[in-house]
Specification:
372 residues, globular, six-stranded mixed β-sheet
Length: 372
């Protein structure tokens, strides 16, 4: 269990945040710029000292203002990966990695150089200097250096923010491998909903220096009241899914999800593989009668459970199909359809609107294999 309670004031900004999260998988600190995410991460790492509060990882108390406990950063056993990597420019990749190893307690070492190099695909980079690396390569080396210190917790502060889309996708793949194969808990700071939806098991939403919500990713992302805090484009749902079959003729994969079958562009995953998929609210439309002769392949029968406040021309509608989906429609459409909590509806999701890059593996299979 990761327990965080921290209060401090910097000029006009006040951080007053607290949450508890299981210390496994990825915990995302999510919110708009200026919400206090990095300040809270720095407090966990010991880089800033709260004026009050308590921070503990399992049974290790890292900070307790009342008890006078404030473990030095280098003794907290927390690896920190910054947005810019912060590698030593005069050292080779190999020596950057080994630099982290010097801080590892000899009796608590779980990651060897060979294992980290293989896991992060660094074999061809070991003799190179940071100045010759791409942004994605530098972040992979920074990840490796942090892990070589054998941390009990890994903090990642916007590690993908400076990367272009292809390199971001590559680094996310490696972060997933770290999560699944190393098992070290990760606190991941981000303002990008696609990153958080793909990586996080637990989401802590921050706004104005406070925690607005904390809990399982699927539950938090389905809440309509958090959308103004997270950003108008953030609304959507995260569904648990299992690969059921592949339609080779049409290049589609059928995923079993709560409420039925979700057809998406073909995935190179084996039948039975478990994953999560994010469905954006703007890609969901509603009907009060079962659609017939429509081009939309994914139609789910459900019931309206909540209607959010009107924002300009649009309104968000939460629909229970066995799990919660959110549809962003015009307020005019909501009124024309007579929608209200309890209304029976059909939720339509276009297959081509589901971005394969947003899908995250829930278990390790062979990602290169397919089932028929």
């Amino acid at each position: 269990m990761l327990t965080v309670e921290a209060r401090l004031t910097r000029g006009e900004f006040t951080l007053d945040a607290s949450f508890d999260a299981e210390a496994d998988g990825v915990v995302a600190l999510f919110g708009a710029s200026g919400a206090g995410k990095t300040t809270l991460a720095d407090a966990i790492a010991g880089l800033v000292r709260p004026e009050a509060g308590r921070i503990a990882l399992e049974d290790r108390v890292l900070f307790d203002a009342e008890a006078g406990i404030d473990i030095k950063p280098e003794r907290r056993r927390i690896g920190y990966v910054f947005q810019d990597g912060r590698l030593f420019p005069h050292l080779s990749v190999r020596r950057n990695l080994l630099y982290g190893h010097r801080f590892a307690p000899r009796d608590r070492r779980y990651a060897t150089l060979e294992r980290i190099v293989t896991l992060l695909g660094l074999e061809a980079l070991l003799q190179r200097r940071p100045g010759t690396l791409s942004g994605g390569e530098r972040q992979r080396v920074a990840l490796g250096r942090a892990l070589m210190a054998q941390p009990e917790l890994l903090l990642m502060d916007e590690p993908l923010a400076a990367l272009d889309v292809p390199r971001k996708a590559q680094v996310i793949d490696y972060i997933e491998r770290l999560r699944d194969e190393i098992g070290v808990p990760i606190v991941f700071v981000s303002h990008a909903v696609d990153e958080v939806a793909r990586l996080a098991g637990t989401i802590v939403v921050m706004a104005g220096g406070r925690v607005a919500a904390a809990g399982p990713a699927a539950e938090v992302m389905a809440r309509l009241d958090l959308d103004p805090l997270a950003g108008i484009e953030a609304a959507g749902a995260v569904l648990d899914a299992t690969v059921q079959s592949h339609d080779a003729a049409y290049g589609l994969t059928e995923l079993a999800v709560p409420g039925g079958i979700l057809r998406v562009p073909r995935l190179r995953l084996a039948q039975g593989h478990r994953l999560r998929v994010r469905v954006r609210a703007r890609d969901v439309s509603l009907a009060t009668a079962e659609p017939r002769e429509t081009s939309v392949l994914n139609v789910f029968r459900g019931r309206v459970v909540e209607i959010g406040p009107r924002r300009g021309a649009s309104v968000d509608v939460a629909v229970d199909i066995g799990a919660r989906l959110t549809a962003r429609i015009t307020a005019r459409s909501a009124d024309t359809l007579g929608l209200a909590p309890g209304s029976e509806v059909y939720a339509l999701v276009k297959s081509v609107a589901v971005d394969p890059a947003s899908l995250v593996q829930a278990e390790q299979d062979n990602p290169g294999s397919e089932g028929g």
